[in-house]
Amino acid sequence: MFFMEDGTLSIIETKVENSGIPQGQFLKRHRVPRDDGMGFVGPDDFRCGSLVTIYSRTYKVTGCDRFTRWFCEENGLDVGEDEPMVQDRWQQSYKFNKIAEKGGLPVTTQAQDAKIYCKFMTGQPPADTKMTQFLLNDGKVLRFKAFWDDPTLYGARIYFVVHYFLANNTVEVNEAHARNSGRDAYPVLLKRGPLYKRNTANAYPGMLVSDGGLYMPEDLKVGESISVWGRDVVLYECDDFTQKFYKEFNDLDQLASRIDVSEKPLRHLKLAPPPHNGIGTEEDSLINCEMIQPKAHKQDLAKLMVLSGENLRFEAKCVNGEAEDECRRFVISYLPDTDRTAVYEMPVRNSGHMGGKFREKSRIKNPETGKYFSLQDLYVGNTVTICSQPLQIIRADEHCLQFLEARPDEFPWANPAACARKLQPLFGEPELQDPAGVDPDLLKELAASQGVNLVDHEVITLLRAFGEDTADGQPVLNGPALMQAESMRLSALCVTGLF
Q1: Sorting pLDDT into bands at 50, 70 and 90, what band is 126?
Q2: Cα Rg for the chain, rounded, in angstroms?
């Protein structure tokens, strides 16, 4: 026997009567090292028909029980087919004698007729049918597994083990309690006795009642139910002896009607946390729902150490369609170390609105995405909704532009190379080839005509990288310089083999 819980092994020798050998526990339970010294003996070392060496003794594995075979098949282990045990003449004669002593050998017709004839000659009454049945079937028990669904208010499914004794056609029903089932340790539901299909109670002792029909072996079939004093008990499985018995005498395959009673795994639904009520931060409220003793929300220390003190400012205007709000200007301040956003209104004379704090510094959710505002949501030309007010970003300060351009992989609209790559369909336009430069507004119109979506932040990035001022101080984009930079980038890619 191999114990999977701790990898131990024990060997038990079957006791043989009058063998003269102290049989029984042959090897105590412990972890057995392999014969080659490489680790310990495991379940993959056993296979039907193979040889296993334990402490310099070689054993041949001939078979395994049904549970072991099922367990190995579930885990992808091939245990092979069972092999018959090798028996010598003594074992064969010993087994034959034991069967004969227990009356297992069938009596011939001549011997049966001779017994009956001798009893008639000597004046003895012949043996009754019950005695003959007892002598032929003593010790033979049919074992079924069954269940009963309790229909009461708090009832549940209860499993039973039904024993049918072939010696006298009696039935015993015991509850099959599971570990920690909470039920009393009294498993007997019906003590051994005859089980009738219809049970009636007598009003007075000694009254004559009709026989309700005794349950016989042919009445017990897997997949069908039997009545046990008003309870419809369903038979869902039987053991190997019962299967063999019905196959030989009734030509009935009981396992063909076996019912799968394995319970489906429970799926626990996780309750969603309640919505934030607006008091405090959402993280602090969520921790109060997850812990009895809440702890402070952990912050990203690496992010705090690298980005502490950074303050990125964007200027925005209100675009809610109201004429009195067109002159209002706002400053959107973003702190990348804690991902907090604050909005301040700039004082404008005779606007009718007081300048100052418009939205307190905190993590604000973007109503379009349902997530907190990130730096990817803030760029020139984009419109964000804060406090139910649409704010269009019109420009950013110098430090903010430098911060974004220093991280071109995270912010593609601040990457001059990426912006120039988007303008490749415009390289054939004469306006872009003009050495005098192209106006930013005209550049956006040309990009729109070619199906290129160019945002204002990308135009600012191109002007900062390839722009120049005209005589009257107007910024223009140097088209030839842009196309030359893009050509050099493509040439470098071709040389390195990446293009």
Answers
A1: low
A2: 45
The answer to whether the beta carbons of residues 139 and 102 sit under 8 Å apart is yes
Q: Which residue has the tokens 């001779």?
A: 114
Cβ–Cβ < 8 Å for 467, 480? no
- At 487, give phi and psi (nearest 5°): -65, -40
| Residue 496: pLDDT band with limits 50, 70, 90 | low
Tell me which of 376 and 436 has the higher pLDDT.
376
Quick one: tokens of 136? 């032929």
Task: Using alpha carbons only, give the angle 362, 365, 369 rounded to the nearest 5 degrees.
Answer: 160
Dump pLDDT digits (tens) for 434-467: 888 888 888 888 888 888 888 899 889 888 888 8
CA angle 161, 163, 167 (to 5 degrees): 175
The whole-angstrom separation of Cα 346 and Cα 354 is: 8
In terms of Cα–Cα distance, which of 110, 106, 95 is closest to 17?
A: 95
Cα–Cα distance for residue pair 73/144, rounded to 1 Å: 24
User: Residue type at 416?
Assistant: P
Q: How far apart are CA 448 and CA 455, in angstroms?
A: 10
pLDDT value for 127: 63
Q: What are phi and psi of 134, to 5 degrees?
A: -65, -45
Using a pLDDT cut of 90, give the percent of the chain over it. 33
SS (H, E, C) the chain: CEECCCCEEEEECCCCCCCCCCCCEEEEEECCECCCCCCECCHHHCCCCCEEEECCEEEECCCCCHHHHHHHHHCCCCCCCCCCCCCCHHHHHHHHHHHHHCCCCCCCHHHHHHHHHHHHHHCCCCCCHHHHHHHHHCCCEEEEEEEEECCCCCCCEEEEEEEEECCCCEEEEEECCCCCCCCCCCCEEEEEECCECCCCCCCCCCCCCCCCCECCHHHCCCCCEEEECCEEEEEEEECHHHHHHHHHHCCCCHHHHCCCCCCCCCCCCCCCCCCCCCCCCHHHHHHHHHCCCCCCCCCCHHHHHHHCCCCEEEEEEECCCCHHHCCCEEEEEEECCCCEEEEEEECCCCCCCCCEEEEEEECCECCCCCCECCHHHCCCCCEEEECCEEEEEEEECHHHHHHHHCCCCCCHHHCHHHHHHHCHHHCCCHHHHCCCCECHHHHHHHHHHCCCCCCHHHHHHHHHHHEEECCCCCEEECHHHHHHHHHHHHHHHHHHCCC
Sign (positive or negative) of CA dihedral 393, 398, 400, 402: positive
Q: 472 is written with which tokens?
A: 């009257």
The Cα–Cα gap between 416 and 435 comes to: 19
